[in-house]
Structures are given as structure tokens and as C-alpha cells.
């Protein structure tokens, strides 16, 4: 289906340097809960983060998903990555226990790495301390010019990892880049990595607009649960409702900014690198009934011997 409106690279409030860091933290916490919350009826397939983990496993395949190290290049304060890591590794462990194949019974887990141009090492450390498969880079990392040392370090296979490939993750992030920067990121991906996954909780559709509006109504209902550890944050939800306004406004702008899989493929094919061996896969999954859909696009390098 064609997009409801043309793509426009408008501004989001949360991106602006003048937006107070304190309020930005509250907005990011709200987005984190949007990624990781799963409620009966509203979330028929689980949280959006769990859908990402399941999609990675289904698209890459049981045989190939352990070959990759997954590097989140726009991790922010952590986002959904810790939940994706935990869910994916739990699923792999469950499959190994239920398998009759001796090869499948070999211990296999996948590693995730959090990076950002503006790193949050303290927040990342808190998450990384809870899992041996989650780590982070404390120094700034530019997704359009990723350090070769970073890629090489995570490409090397260890004793339990039958591969050595790098998968770049962009969770609710790729729409922030204009076409020039998006091409540069894709070019750097093709030249240094093996796959990229772009996951968005919105699209240029009427359903996405409805979802943003419903989200705005839902925020005041769940705010006491989201900010229970610091009740004074609720001042910015109920008395001066900046947090819900920014979440809804930026959600609508994000919808208008989000690219279709076809538009991402055009950027990939015109990025200036050889993309002959790269294929595009895409789809969407309902994450919030009845109108919320998580859209995804993966660009994957084909290797000899892959099925």
C-alpha cells in the first residue's frame, strides 16, 4: 500500500539541543516502556522488543542467527536492546533444550553491543551487568564512519560462535537521518558489516496517526507505573503535560519521517558501494491492537554456502 503522505524530514522536539536534558530523559523513559510493555489484548504478540527478537530469528533463520554480533548504533539510554538480547537468547536456549540434534545441543548465545554518537555508559553499565551477552562502547561511535577496530573486534568468532558477522541495529532511529546521512550509514554498513535491521514503531499511514493519538490518551493512565520511582516526574505529565505532548508530537513527525522498504532500498543501491550481494527483506507486525504496527526492513549480505 502506498504511503498516506510523502516523506518529509521535519524536526522532532526531542532532537533539539534546546530541549532540557531532564525532560529528554523522561521522554526516553516513556519510549523505553513503549518498547518493552506487554499488556493483555493490547499487545497480542508481546512487546515490540520481543517482536524484534522473534523477527530476527525468523528472518535470519535458526542456523544463521547465532553467526552475528548485533551492534545497536543508536542505543540512546538503552532502549529495547537489553530486552531483545534477553528474549533472543532465551529462545535459543529453549530451542537447544528441545532439540534432538547433537549439533544443536552445543551451547550457543548471541552478543549485543550498545553504542551511540552520544553514549550513555552509566545507563548501559546497569543493563550490561545483568547479562554476559550484553556489552557497550563507552566512547562516541559514528554510524556513518564506524571505527574498523570496533567492527573487527566483534567480527572475530569465539569458541561458541559459528560465524563472525556483524548485524547493525537501528531501533526507532533510522528515520532521524536525512537522505545524505542515511546513504552514508548504508555505505559504511555495506563496506564493513554483513546486515542491517531497521525497526520502526510507526509508518506513513493513517493507522500510525491513530496509534499516536491513542498513545497520547494512554500515557496519563500508565504514567504512575512508568515513573513510580520518582513521583515528582508526574508534574510534567499532569500539571504541565510536556512529556505526553512531546511523545505524541514527535510520534506524528516520526511517522512522516519513516521510509518505506522501497525507499530504503533506493538509498542502499545508490549509496556508492557494491550492493550486488545484498538482498532486502521487510514486513510488519501488529504490536498494539488495533492500529499499532512495527515495520521492519533488513538488508542482508548473501554469503557463499548460505541457504
In brief, what are we looking at here?
Keywords: Membrane, Transmembrane, Transmembrane helix. The protein is α/β, with parallel strands linked by helices and 307 residues long.
Low-confidence stretches: none
Sheet having the most strands: 7 strands, mixed
Distance between the termini: 30 Å
Roughly what fraction of the amino acids lie in strands? 5-15%
Keywords: Membrane, Transmembrane, Transmembrane helix
Transmembrane segments: 206-228, 234-253
Explained architecture:
This protein has 307 residues and is of the alpha/beta class. The protein has ten helices and seven strands. A seven-stranded mixed beta sheet has the order 3-2-1-4-5-7-6, with helices on both faces. The longest helix is centred in the last third of the chain and has 21 residues, at 206-226. It is globular, with a radius of gyration of 19 Å.
Strand-helix topology:
Blueprint: H1 21-36, H2 48-60, E1 68-72, H3 81-97, E2 112-114, H4 121-128, E3 134-136, H5 148-155, E4 165-171, H6 179-192, E5 195-200, H7 206-226, H8 235-239, H9 242-257, H10 261-269, E6 278-288, E7 292-301
Parallel strand pairs: 1-2, 1-4, 2-3, 4-5
Antiparallel strand pairs: 5-7, 6-7
Features:
307 residues, alpha/beta, seven-stranded mixed β-sheet, 10 helices, 7 strands
Amino acid at each position: 500500500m502506498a504511503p498516506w503522505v510523502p516523506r518529509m524530514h521535519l524536526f522532532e522536539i526531542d532532537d533539539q539541543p534546546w530541549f532540557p536534558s531532564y525532560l529528554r530523559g523522561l521522554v526516553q523513559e516513556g519510549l523505553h516502556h513503549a518498547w518493552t510493555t506487554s499488556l493483555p489484548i493490547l499487545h497480542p504478540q508481546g512487546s515490540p522488543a520481543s517482536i524484534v527478537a522473534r523477527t530476527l530469528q525468523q528472518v535470519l533463520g535458526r542456523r544463521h542467527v547465532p553467526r552475528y554480533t548485533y551492534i545497536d548504533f543508536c542505543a540512546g539510554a538503552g532502549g529495547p536492546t537489553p530486552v531483545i538480547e534477553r528474549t533472543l537468547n532465551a529462545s535459543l536456549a529453549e530451542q537447544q533444550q528441545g532439540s534432538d540434534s547433537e549439533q544443536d545441543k552445543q551451547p550457543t548465545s548471541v552478543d549485543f553491543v550498545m553504542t551511540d554518537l552520544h553514549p550513555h555508559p552509566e545507563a548501559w553499565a546497569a543493563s550490561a551487568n545483568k547479562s554476559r551477552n550484553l556489552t557497550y562502547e563507552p566512547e562516541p561511535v559514528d554510524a556513518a564512519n564506524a571505527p574498523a577496530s570496533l567492527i573487527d573486534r566483534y567480527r572475530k568468532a569465539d569458541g561458541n560462535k559459528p560465524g563472525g558477522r556483524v548485524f547493525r541495529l537501528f531501533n526507532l532511529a533510522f528515520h532521524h537521518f536525512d537522505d545524505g546521512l542515511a546513504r552514508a550509514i548504508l555505505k559504511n554498513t555495506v563496506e564493513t558489516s554483513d546486515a542491517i535491521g531497521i525497526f520502526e514503531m510507526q509508518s506513513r499511514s493513517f493507522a500510525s496517526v491513530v496509534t499516536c493519538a491513542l498513545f497520547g490518551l494512554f500515557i496519563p493512565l500508565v504514567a504512575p507505573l512508568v515513573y513510580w520511582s520518582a513521583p515528582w516526574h508526574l508534574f510534567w505529565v499532569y500539571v504541565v503535560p510536556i512529556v505526553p505532548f512531546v511523545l505524541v508530537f514527535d510520534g506524528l513527525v516520526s511517522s512522516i519521517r519513516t521510509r518505506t522498504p522501497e525507499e530504503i532500498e533506493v538509498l542502499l543501491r545508490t549509496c556508492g558501494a557494491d550492493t550486488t550481494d545484498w538482498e532486502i527483506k521487510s514486513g510488519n507486525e501488529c504490536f498494539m491492537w488495533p492500529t499499532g504496527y512495527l515495520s521492519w526492513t533488513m538488508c542482508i549480505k548473501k554469503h557463499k554456502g548460505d541457504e
